[in-house]
């Protein structure tokens, strides 16, 4: 609900960019300026983020949830956001569907201060189910993560996500 309130305020006040930031994130001093500069130089970027400090490289399209800069001209085409598991991914997929870019810059960083609680990745599975991910995509993501091919998270993360997806189908 808070994200939709922020989007509404940014649209009504003609604010060109919206920053989504978790309470457990610390940004570099020039984090926002760097993202806005890149978005200004390429109007096809709908949303972007830096990467979590210390993360292994991930797929370019894997925009982080916290530290996410969103172009207001784009976000008003998706407003209001669905209040279901996975709305964060919905914004990315909708941008790509509309022909925009979604980029995680791996030379701009923010620090994720709090560790993710055990089992938190499990909720990504129901999120994929809520967003209607095709089963073949979920299985492909599982195998990519198990092989360690360019996506964030390890083997336990992959199994937890997949289990969450199956669990969502059952209930």
Q: How does this structure look, described?
A:
There is one protein chain. Helices cover 43% and strands 18% of the residues. With 171 residues, it is an alpha+beta fold. It has a 5-stranded mixed beta sheet, sandwiched between helices. It starts with a helix and ends with a helix.
Keywords:
single chain, 171 residues, alpha+beta, 5-stranded mixed β-sheet, 7 helices, 5 strands
Map the helices and strands.
Layout: H1 2-12, E1 17-20, E2 25-27, H2 31-41, E3 45-52, E4 68-71, H3 72-75, H4 87-97, E5 101-112, H5 124-130, H6 135-147, H7 155-170
Parallel strand pairs: 3-5
Antiparallel strand pairs: 1-4, 2-5, 3-4
Give the integer mean of the pLDDT values.
84
Low-confidence runs: none
SSE order: HEEHEEHHEHHH
Strand content: 15-25%
The counted number of beta strands is: 5
Shape: globular
| Helix-strand makeup class | alpha+beta
| Percent range of helical residues | 40-55%
Biggest sheet layout: 5 strands, mixed
Summarize the structure.
The chain is of the alpha+beta class. It is built from seven helices and five strands; from the N terminus they run H-E-E-H-E-E-H-H-E-H-H-H.
